[in-house]
Design a protein that fits this description.
The complex is a heterodimer of chains A (224) and B (314). Chain A has 224 residues and is α+β, with helices and mostly antiparallel strands. Chain A contains five helices and 13 strands. Classes of the chains: A alpha+beta (224), B alpha+beta (314).
Amino acid sequence: MIKNILNLGDAALYCDFGNEVNKSINSQVIKYFKTIKEKKFEGINNLTPSYNKLIISYDLKKTNFKEVKNYVENIHAEDSIDINSKKLEIPVCCHENFSMDIKRLEEILKLSREKILENFLNKEYFCYMTGFIAGMPFLGDLDENMRAQRLETPRVKVPKGSVALTEQFANIYTFESPGGWNILGNTPLDVFDSSKEDKPNLINPGDTIIFKEITLDQYKNYNE
Amino acid sequence: MSSNYIDIIRPGINTTFQDKGRDHLYHIGIPFSGAMDNRNYLIANKLVNNNLHSAVIEFAYQGPHIKYSGEKINCAITGDVIFLIKKKDTEIEGKCYESYQIENGDEINIISTNKSVYGYLALGGEFDLKFQWNSCSINTKANIGSNDGKKLDVGQRINLKKINSNKDIKKTNYINTKIENIRVIKGTNFDYFSEEGKKKFYEKEFIVSKLSDRMGMRLQGPKIDNIVNTNIKSEGLIKGVIQVPADGNPIIMLSDHGTIGGYPKIGVVASVDYDRLVQMSPGSKIKFKEINLSDAETLFKLYEMETQNLLSQI
């Protein structure tokens, strides 16, 4: 449930669901997000769910903080609401061409390459949120012994499709972008496709995904 | 097929098509985009009798040099911009906030913005552009919008699919006011910063850094000390949010910002000051002034009324 509602500037509501990051809090955020999105309140022009917060942006020409707050406080995001989640398999190639930070991970985690991949692959991860760049999914939770900090100096260009780790999360770079996560592999799948306007994202908040390893040959032939 | 078009002789530094932007997409990581300085965008369209939300050409610092081919059409430039209009036998120095008639073979050469960042070129008609999510605004980071999501390039030809029949010449006396004080509403992590840091934030000057673009404006000044945590659990951002990363230098989120961020938010720029904030060029001095929510709402209402008033007089 929402613990506290604050204003974020003069054109957004900051709904705080707590400080922890876990599936149960995040599922509440997603329920509120989906409920408000369906209702189409006049003036609300954007919703940003994250681990434990929901930011509701509105057009200050059409409404204001008091009205939107009042509206949100009276919403019942039913426990029964179907968050309509999918289960997806994501192929990932961890060949040395792609696993740019495997050596760094081996050193930080004090695990062998084989052990790192064994820990990472074939497990279910939950999509907490998407964003930062278009379509990027934030997937959790990595095992305790798989958690590494960001690179001290972020890369200027992380290749499209990179599968990367930081702290308790994995993500996928949906297009080439700067970034500081530890890169473990690369997926040939298009995780974000702007030409599909109704469904540009392959992975959405609430979905469960599993990474399946593919060989370099399978990777090369994947889109043919 | 189209007989009315422009050719890009020189694209300028960061020239894109922009309109009102796109909404309801933060949750998948897509920001609003749209014209950075909304008021100047609307005025540009009004001056050429366009629908107010038509696409215009936005440029930063150095603008484009274009050649027009086709039937007579009006054009107008807004902002604080130095430009030339070259006709068959003459070349005139253009004035912002006035519309001009151009005809086949005429050229518009936008030399630069003057102590500001963004300017707008509107043509009386509709460019033939691809829309994504109801907007042709170009987001060069995600390659979304018209022109394959890329800035305009030399040699490109852009068609107009329609030109306006209303060719009345218009003019307004608008002057861009410059401000040094940017009004700010306290951010959700205001208490992450030391008393000294908070004081510096409101009392000292900050300088706009060269590392500023449509995504964000970086500032340099006294370091703002964080006493709680230099990272927060990543959460949503909106334009105008001022984040302070570990190095203590504030970054203001602008129209093409990343939708999620993990740095503490010290404040948020009041909507009333956004159009003027984005026009502050590198080297400009900024001072932040605290304002409460209700004053920010009232001031925005007045600003919006003033905008509507300006538009109705054109």
